[in-house]
Amino acid sequence: MLRPLHDAVALNVVRSVDSPAEIPDLTDHYAAAFAALVDAKLHAREPARRAQLVDLMGALQQSVRDARAARGQPDGS
Questions:
Q1: According to the model, what pLDDT value does residue 77 have?
Q2: pLDDT at 30 > cutoff 70
Q3: pLDDT of residue 8
Q4: Cβ(10)–Cβ(17) under 8 Å?
Q5: 33, 25, 40: which is closest to 17 by C-alpha?
Q6: Which of 44, 45, 20, 18 is nearest to 31 (CA)?
Q7: Is the pLDDT score of 46 beyond 70?
Q8: Does the pLDDT value for residue 58 go beyond 60?
């Protein structure tokens, strides 16, 4: 019951914002990473790499297996 109400309120808040500058705690990580990449390329440096990549599909599959095991259902693989 609360989830649809929560979603409606969140959508209303998002629609009320005219620009990202109106949200003081908003950080555009994509723009910052892109600017760092461009700066590194301009100065002939190797761009910084992220330390760890996450396998989202693997994490999702493990989550499904864990949920099925918690309910006592077969793995299904």
A1: 55
A2: yes
A3: 82
A4: no
A5: 25
A6: 20
A7: yes
A8: yes
What is the spatial distance between Cα 60 and Cα 54, in angstroms, rounded to a whole number? 11
Q: Which residues contact 74 (CB under 8 A, 6 or more apart)?
A: 68
The string over 15-26, giving b where at least 16 C-beta atoms fall within 10 Å of a residue's C-beta and e elsewhere, is eeeeeeeeeeee
pTM of the model: 0.33
| Helix-strand-coil split of the chain, %, nearest 5 | 60, 0, 40
Answer whether 54's CB lies under 8 Å from 60's CB. no
| Spatial distance between the Cα atoms of 62 and 46, rounded to a whole number of angstroms | 35
**pLDDT tens readout for residues 32-42:** 888 888 888 88
User: Counting every residue, how long is the chain?
Assistant: 77
